[in-house]
Amino acid sequence: MSRTWHLPAELVDAWASGEVGPTVAASVEQHLTVCPACRSAVIAPVAADGTLDLDRVWTRIADQVEAARTPLVGRMMTRLGMRPSDALLLGAASAFTASWVAATATVVALTFAMSVVRPSSAVAVYLLLAPLVPMAGVGAAYGREVDPIHELGVASPYPQLRLLLLRTAAVLVVSVPVTVVAGLALDPWWVAVAWLLPGLALVVVLLVATTWCPPGVAAWTVGVLWGVIAMTAHRFDEVLVLVGETGLAVSAATLVAGAVFLIAGRRQLSARLGSLR
Amino acid sequence: MDDLSSLDDRAVLGLVADGDPTALRVLYARHAPWLGVRLRRRCADVDVVEEALQDTFVAVWRGASRFRGDGEVGAWLWGICIRRLITRLQGRPAVRQVPLQEHDDVEVAAEDVVLTSAEYGDLGDAMASLSPEFRSVIQATVLDGLTTREAARLLGIPEGTVKTRAMRARAQLRASLAGGTG
Fold first, then answer.
1. Contacts of A159 (CB under 8 A, 6+ apart)
2. Does A25 reach chain B within 8 Å, measured CB to CB?
3. I want to staple A251 with a disulfide (CB 3.0 to 4.6 A). Which of A97, A102, A156, A197 is the partner?
4. How far is CA B74 from the centre of its chain?
5. What is the number of CB-based contacts under 8 A between chain A and chain B?
6. In angstroms, rounded to a whole number, what is the distance separating the alpha carbons of residues B10 and A156?
């Protein structure tokens, strides 16, 4: 492939900036097609010219290439109209799906076991654990330790809040249906649906808490808090109060207040999340 | 990246076919600049050119194994590029144009005389005497080797018009090369 003749540098520059006529351009292009040395002489003028943003194009190519390699969930989301970069992040999120699946499976197994062994406590155990599943999933979905694309996240500008909400949605889509189905085996069957409101409230509380402390710490704190509340209610044999009128009212109020806080403070939250990474 | 830089294009393309993203990055770094400029000479819209480049390398990623080992990688890539550009141009009539035709007054170094004699010699004069419409048709069909249909899509004109213009442009070139004043 060695060639003794190469394009003069001035000619390469002139061609790259579009200053030669069609006949010379055709000769230049014919030569470039077969000559690696002259092709590499084009790299610097194009970068200096800056009309073509080749780095940006590469980012898009890398996105598409990665999206083609993402797991099924990510590909399905792309087909449903999600942007490839979002699907990529979801795909990476589903790499630690294992932890949510484990948590959800624990709830399912415990609910079944309890409803057989001690039917009286089954509802209490379910109400203690079920609302924690989505919240723990969201907390786990954002930690530095569990994030396989943390480096990518640092390198690419991406709205942090958008990322967090996207992953929250992904966690909810996976964990909520399974938990609901597990709860249908319980005695007052509506418990299986009623926990959703406290569960969502816990997620919102977690998101709000993330404004002040790392997601892992926030998840533990919120989890312990909920555990204390649920145990206390159980001790007084009033566990259903959690999903009774009072419980639902408190949950709804928390949900609304938290949502308002998040929307109002979304800029601070984004900055906070950004500084975490 | 270091161990790849010593490999030639065919070897790198082989690695791309095996699913190595780093090899695709190397191939992109080597070829995207000249392909980009070459596309820019055929389409004024930078966005469309960037989209065509993007499509090309995504297509290479998916179909690197379809490269027949007997040709030039550069020529193969350009073949994909120009067709992706044509596809991208479909349905966007506003941006269809061939830019950068009116720069014949360039100062040229003395050592380039061999190459530029083509420009300022008989053929160059003859090409310069063509109207931009005729020249773009000659460039697409003769110099780029596109089919009539592809040239029509690239230039945004009907196939019949490409045929007539190519015929008339050839006649005009022949006349001016034969010593006429064009």
1. A270
2. yes
3. A197
4. 11
5. 129
6. 31
